[in-house]
Design brief:
CATH class: Alpha Beta
Radius of gyration: 20 Å
Strand content: 5-15%
Order of helices and strands: EHEHEHEHHHEHEHHHE
Distance between the termini: 32 Å
Number of strands: 7
Largest sheet: 7 strands, parallel
Oligomer: single chain
CATH architecture: 3-Layer(aba) Sandwich
Strand order of the largest sheet: 3-2-1-4-5-6-7
Structural class: alpha/beta
Helix content: 40-55%
């Protein structure tokens, strides 16, 4: 499939795990992918595997985020897709969390995601047809599917999407987590941020949605398993296995399962879907 041909996609945290799976899926369907990854070596390795452009960046650094967006726009001429996948997690009892613990998780998972959305959205708006930019303040004018008979050559249909933003939340964002209070809070906030983004960008025909993965055997989940092992004295793999046992479909997700949902939201099939959060968790959460 080449449904993302001529599209430029930024995928954060794509050096491994779910992010790399998403980058592979988008590239396989024709997108020019930029791997925005904190670990420079991982960015280079993943880029070589995906056939993508590496861009080492710390998304909690707002100035670095703006530089990245400007440089990508200058290099490729446009940015069509943003997938906010970068994130960090920590398993630690709520009453033991420190200010540093809180700031580290929220800075990457929420603060970094917000300012990257803001920077990319500004670029996407600059790319809009002039008629759509002018009409954005008058929503009743831009919902017409067919142009007026006397419209000039610049006038066109605005039914299609002019940008896709997909942010990775988590099933942890659906309910509280006493051992991951800060992580759960950041992921619940991603759902709210997605809704606000969808409302703010709807006049520009830019869609914003979220995907909430469940258990996915990735380095992040291996770290969760290890931290729970230290807390409860379990053996490696036991905590993850216990979680998987609670999933109605009785298996963990794969990076490809999550990537398929992300690719759908990035495609024209989802042009009329915005502000939504989709669980990809085998039925672990049903809300």
């Amino acid at each position: 499939m080449t449904r993302f041909a001529d599209k430029v996609a930024i995928v954060t945290g794509a050096g491994q795990g779910i992010g790399k799976g998403i980058a592979l899926r988008l590239a396989r369907e024709g997108a020019q992918v930029v791997i925005a990854e904190y670990n420079a070596a991982a960015a280079e390795a993943a880029a070589a595997e995906v056939g993508a452009a590496p861009y080492p960046v710390d998304i909690s650094d707002v100035a670095a985020v703006h530089r990245m967006v400007d440089e990508i726009a200058a290099r490729f001429g446009h940015i069509d897709i943003l997938v906010n996948n970068a994130g960090v997690a920590q398993t630690k009892p709520m009453l033991e969390l420190t200010e540093a613990d809180w700031d580290r998780v929220l800075d990457v998972n929420l603060r970094g995601t917000f300012f990257l959305i803001q920077a990319v959205a500004q670029q996407m708006i600059r790319q809009l047809p002039a008629a759509l930019r002018a009409a954005a303040s008058a929503p009743a004018d831009i919902v017409r599917v067919k142009p007026a008979a006397d419209a000039g050559p610049e006038r066109e249909s605005f039914a299609a999407s002019y940008g896709k933003i997909v942010s990775l939340s988590s099933v942890a964002g659906r309910r509280g987590r006493p051992l991951q209070t800060h992580y759960a809070a950041s992921k619940a906030a991603i759902i709210s941020l997605t809704q606000s983004t969808a409302l703010a960008l709807a006049p520009y025909r830019i869609n914003a949605n979220a995907v909430c993965p469940g258990i996915v055997p990735t380095p992040m989940w291996e770290k969760i398993d290890e931290e729970r092992g230290r807390l409860f004295g379990s053996q490696p793999g036991e905590a993850m296995a216990a979680f998987i046992n609670t999933v109605p479909l009785k298996r963990a997700a794969t990076a490809e399962d999550v990537a398929a949902a992300v690719a759908f939201f990035c495609s024209s099939d989802a042009d009329y879907i915005t502000g939504q959060a989709l669980n990809v968790d085998g039925g672990f959460e049903m809300d």
